[in-house]
# Entry
Amino acid sequence: MISPKETLLFYLGHPAHYHNISVVIKKLSEKGFHIILVARGKDVLFDLLDGLPYQIIFIKTKKEKRKLSLISTVLKRELVLLKVVLKYRPKMLIGTDIAITHIGKLMQIPAVILNEDDAKEVPLFTNFGIKYATAVLAPNCCDVSPYNNKKVGYQGYHELAYLHPNYFTPDKTKIKELFTEDENYFIIRFAELTAHHDKGKKGINLSIAKKLIDQLAPFGRVYITSERKLEPELEPYRIKIHPKNMHHALYYAQMYIGDSQTMAAEAAVLGTPSIRFNDFVGKLSYLEELEHKYQLTFGIPTNHVNALFEKVDELLKHKSIKKVFSQRKEVMLNDCIDVVEFWTDYFMKNKKK
# Structure
């Protein structure tokens, strides 16, 4: 066992960030590390953290769109983080926020970014975060240039850190309210698309959503999960389960369609047919690899709306689609490492001495 004074701090700003590290922090805690989770932003993230046996520090933030306000918000987050670091003296800062890289640099503590996006698609994060990080843990296919010298690559994806069969067992009883006998169901996802790297990006609008519902409804139930506020006519389709059970719902779904990158990748690694419809199609290497190497997801750009409905129709007509995708998933899994073991080993070996 290590000294209980050895603290690792994980900084979370989105529900996906908690999922990314949920298994890793459990392993590290079992090895004797004191785990601190600093969480900001979205209420569903706070719901996910409720009841966990770790020290959790919440930062309430307001969404700011103007650049000067964004800078002010980041500085406020950094001030809170600095106070936490001064109090607990962690051996490493880990997360996906630029704040950890700045405070890490200031306090001479290793700051490790967990990243899956190509650097050119998140320019502010790259120039003000990755630039100052100690290291960037990213899939082999991910390009973080001009800072590839900081990259610690591995054959795998973020989503395998919590959805690999070693760590995730689908359980139909957790989502029994979604089923009527053996009726199929489909999940549609709306991302918020308000982050700085989402500027000018489009996804599924109301008109497209209504057409998708009409197309899917004859084949099963339709559920919607959304970061953004739903229009009144879509509200009846909102999925009513706890956020902690979403991956069970995704596993048993007949198909996933959405404008979220993360959930498209989650569906893919679970072996659920996955369609993503947004302006990031063709731009993110990890999703391109899941699509073109493993055929586990399909990307449709927003200027090809008819192609979206055609792809949905094609998948609906495939009678053994879930079996085919399960086989493709196994091929992918055989190519990938145990991401949890890789991350855990890295954090333990590279913490501040």
